């Protein structure tokens, strides 16, 4: 049997060219999203980013661009893709996950099976954000790594997950958790695994996504139920009065 080396070589070259072209197209579409806010073929871009993550980063380095763009594109697409589903999720069943690098170097919180148990000492921004999130029903966690996130997801089975982290950790975690529930993510302003920073206002904005709308819907539903009960009550009273009148009319009248 003659092995068609020429054909195999041409096929490999074709596949490599196809891979390169697909990667470049995905990166261009991702950059259009980041720069212009226009989302084109998001599922294709995500598929390429998730499948060729490290190849795309090397490709960006070769053309003189920051490899962080790959993670930023993935995070932005997922934020836009899951935005509506996250808004509709029950805030009482959502989780908020912070990285341990966001806490103070003097943090007194101990490490537990499900992350670092915040003591709300006020030495870092986590304390304030944690209180705000818990006010609307979130469970809040501070974790040293992605394995803790998987354990938390298995335990809580949340309706939605909001994460704060550096690019790679956030993109990877959002990819994993999105198989379970809608996800939203906030990138750190300053990473480096020590004394990091985050946009507090942006985190608060994400925490409250859909909360006011759901409260309005709940209030509207309660009002509609109240009106139905009142209407049903009035109808019952009218039927009772009508029944009493019919009964009186059927009673024999005494002769005059």
Describe it.
The chain has 256 residues and is of the alpha/beta class. The chain has 2 domains: 10-78, no CATH class; 87-210, Rossmann fold, CATH 3.40.50. The chain contains 10 helices and 6 strands. The strands form 2 sheets. Strands 4-1-5-6 form a 4-stranded parallel beta sheet, with helices on both faces. Strands 2-3 form a two-stranded antiparallel ribbon. A hairpin with a 2-residue loop joins strand 2 (111-112) and strand 3 (115-116). Helix 1 crosses helix 2 (42-51). The model has no long low-confidence stretch (mean pLDDT 87).
User: If classified by CATH, what would the architecture of the largest domain be?
Assistant: 3-Layer(aba) Sandwich
CATH topology of the largest domain: Rossmann fold
Gap from first CA to last CA: 124 Å
The CATH class of the largest domain is: Alpha Beta
Rounded to an integer in angstroms, the radius of gyration calculated over CA atoms is 29 Å
Domain unit count: 2
Largest sheet: 4 strands, parallel
Overall 3D form: extended
> Strand order across the biggest sheet?
4-1-5-6
Mean pLDDT across the residues is 87
Enumerate how many helices there are, as a single number: 10
Structural class: alpha/beta
The H/E string reads HHHHHEEEHEHEHEHH
| Fraction of residues in β-strands | 5-15%
What are the low-pLDDT stretches, counting only 5+ consecutive residues below 50?
none
β-strand number = 6
Helical content band: 55-70%
């Amino acid at each position: 049997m003659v092995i068609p080396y020429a054909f195999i070589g041409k096929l490999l070259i074709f596949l490599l060219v196809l891979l390169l072209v697909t990667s470049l197209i995905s990166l261009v579409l991702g950059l259009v999203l980041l720069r212009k806010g226009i989302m084109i073929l998001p599922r294709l871009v995500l598929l390429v980013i998730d499948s060729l993550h490290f190849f795309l980063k090397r490709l960006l380095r070769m053309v003189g661009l920051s490899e962080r763009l790959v993670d930023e594109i993935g995070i932005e697409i997922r934020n836009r893709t899951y935005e509506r589903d996250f808004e509709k999720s029950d805030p009482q069943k959502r989780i908020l996950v912070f990285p341990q690098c966001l806490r103070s170097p003097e943090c007194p919180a101990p490490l537990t099976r499900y992350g670092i148990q915040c003591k709300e000492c006020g030495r870092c921004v986590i304390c304030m954000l944690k209180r705000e999130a818990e006010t609307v029903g979130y469970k809040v966690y501070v974790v040293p790594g992605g394995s803790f996130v998987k354990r938390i997801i298995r335990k809580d089975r949340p309706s939605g997950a909001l994460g704060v982290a550096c690019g790679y950790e956030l993109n990877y975690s959002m990819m994993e958790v999105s198989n379970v529930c809608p996800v939203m993510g906030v990138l750190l302003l300053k990473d480096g695994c020590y004394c990091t920073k985050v946009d507090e206002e942006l985190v608060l904005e994400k925490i409250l996504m859909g909360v006011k709308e759901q409260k309005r819907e709940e209030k509207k539903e309660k009002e509609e139920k109240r009106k139905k009960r009142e209407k049903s009550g009035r109808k019952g009273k009218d039927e009772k009065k009508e029944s009493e009148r019919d009964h009186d009319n059927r009673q024999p009248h005494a002769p005059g």
